[in-house]
Design goal:
Pfam families: Seryl_tRNA_N, tRNA-synt_2b. InterPro entries: aa-tRNA-synt_IIb, aa-tRNA-synth_II, aa-tRNA-synth_II/BPL/LPL, Ser-tRNA-ligase_type_1, Ser-tRNA-synth_1_N, SerRS_1_N_sf, SerRS_core, tRNA-bd_arm. This is serine--tRNA ligase. By secondary structure, the protein is α+β, with helices and mostly antiparallel strands. The protein is built from 14 helices and 18 strands. Helices cover 37% and strands 18% of the residues.
């Protein structure tokens, strides 16, 4: 039996919690009317800061600030359902705990209640100001008018101070609440990577009759890699793909695009740079101590670590019609990652690079569609890797391995003979409305009985169609021959001019 988010006695509660999020149609609004001028008075310098969003890594960095510590200012607001958090605080805290996210839900709720109280106080003063203004209409003694004017000025000054406090409080609430991870599918295993559940296994390990070579040695004999020049020109963990290496990358890209095209995805080529605010809204930390994101100095731009960020931004701040959904997009992009903290044998060669190419799938859907689409994305990955002849496992990843946006994530791990282990080659995540609430992506449901329906936040999903370096690793190590050649998987041959074997250079 799969391990679930909580014990048997509390599973029903969590299922209701998750269902509540899925049914949520309109985010709870915070009753604040802080004027633009009051926000500006709250210190322009303070509001230039960048929010610390929830971590996209499996575990929050040890030096991440606790919810009780001072907060950086936010420059954008997430449409977080604070009423839901307040009404389900215990379940939300437990969910953060099993995902190893350091956030104090009780403090979030307390801050939300304080914000409501302060907002109510501001409303009371506004009512008094309105009453004061009305009372000055008509003729009256100068002494009486002067007293009313003085009272009005005092009310105005008092309101201005409270609105600054209100803006600061709302900023603190956002900074704290943006660390909350998404809720978790009830069937997701609890714990670390070792607790992943195998949901499918395809093929079997190849029995070699000769000593297995690693992909670096194979590729260098084939004239595919030039790590020496990559290191000389760009630094460690960069590579030049040369000869059949360059051809194989292009073949993989074209094969992957042909496949996703046949599945109804719109192909796209996207920029390599993305605004840091978009990175944050997608659930990553561009300025965290152990970030995987390269930030560009003296700008608000980052080098994109995945096309997910660029595709997520396509419908940012937009409303689509229900009839348009699901929207399926697929993009080729270069990906840039610091690989901070990465170490071990798997860092040698192509397994972990600072720059690599990838074809990514991204879907914008309704809440009712997202679960089935998640299964569809997983099935597309299985179909692709099965066609290539890989031996691999599909894993339902546990709570501590989920990035902040993921409600559920399936990883595909292929057998890599030289490493003598399975290595991740793709993943598929359902992020439900987590990213959409931050990116402000909504749809308008179809009319009911001719009546217009309120806007609803979309669900977003992403999946890897083809991560080029690890696909090359898997091909070279699994299809190597004793003479140093490598058999080309049949689906790739048309994209290599009919080449069926890669042979060592003379």
């Amino acid at each position: 039996m799969h391990r679930t988010l909580c014990s048997r006695s509390s599973t029903a509660v969590v299922r209701r919690v998750v269902a509540g999020v899925e049914r949520a149609r309109v985010v709870a609004s915070i009753p604040t009317r802080a004027t633009a001028s009051a926000v500006r008075r709250a210190s322009r310098a303070q509001f230039r800061g960048i929010a610390r969003s929830a971590s996209a890594t499996a575990e929050a960095p040890s030096d991440a600030p606790r919810a009780s510590e001072p907060h950086a200012a936010t420059v954008w607001k997430a449409a977080i359902d604070f009423k839901f958090v307040r009404d389900n605080a215990e379940a939300v805290q437990k969910n953060a705990g099993v995902r190893r996210v350091d956030v104090n839900v009780a403090e979030v709720v307390a801050k939300y209640e304080a914000l409501n109280a302060l907002s109510f106080k501001c409303d009371e003063i506004r009512e008094k100001r309105n009453a004061n203004a009305k009372s000055m209409k008509g003729k009256m003694e100068k002494e009486t008018r002067d007293a009313l004017i003085a009272e009005g000025k005092a009310l105005k000054d008092s309101l201005a101070e409270l609105e600054v406090e209100l803006a600061t409080l709302e900023n603190e609430l956002q900074t704290m609440a943006q660390r909350l991870p998404n809720l978790t599918h009830p069937d997701v295993p609890v714990g670390g990577e070792e607790n992943a559940t195998v949901v499918a296994e395809v093929g079997s390990q190849r029995a070699f009759t000769f000593p297995v070579q690693n992909h670096v040695d194979i590729g260098e004999k084939l004239g595919m890699f030039d790590f020496e020049t990559g290191s000389k020109v760009s630094g460690s963990r960069f590579v030049y793909l040369t000869g059949v290496g360059a051809m194989l990358e292009l073949a993989l890209i074209n094969w992957a695009f042909a496949k996703v095209l046949s599945k109804g995805f719109k192909p796209m080529m996207v920029p390599d740079m993305v605004r840091s605010s978009v990175v944050e809204k997608c659930g990553f930390q561009p300025r965290a101590e152990n970030t995987q994101v390269y930030s560009i100095e003296n700008s608000d731009l980052c080098m994109a670590g995945t096309a997910e960020l660029l595709l997520g931004g396509v419908y940012m701040d937009e409303v689509v019609e229900e009839s348009q959904l699901p929207i399926k997009m697929a993009a080729f992009s270069h990906c840039f990652r610091t690989e901070a903290g990465a170490a071990g044998a798997q860092t040698r060669g192509m397994y972990r690079l600072h720059q690599f190419s990838k074809v990514e799938m991204f879907v914008v859907a309704t809440p009712e569609q997202s679960d089935a689409i998640h299964q569809e994305l997983k099935d597309i990955e299985i179909e692709m890797f099965q066609e290539l002849g890989f031996h691999f496992k599909v894993l339902d990843m546990p709570t501590e391995d989920l990035g902040a946006p993921a409600y559920r994530k399936f990883d595909v791990e292929a057998w890599m003979p030289a490493l003598e282990r399975y290595g991740e080659i793709s993943s598929a995540s359902n992020c439900t409305d987590y990213q959409a609430r931050r990116l402000n992506i909504k749809y308008r449901p179809n009319p009911v009985d001719g009546k217009k329906q309120p806007l609803v936040h979309c669900h977003t999903l992403n999946a890897t169609a083809c991560a080029i370096p690890r696909m090359i690793v898997t091909i070279l190590e699994n299809f190597q021959q004793e003479d140093g050649s490598v058999v080309v998987p049949e689906p790739l041959r048309p994209y290599l001019g009919g080449m069926d074997v890669l042979r060592p250079e003379a």
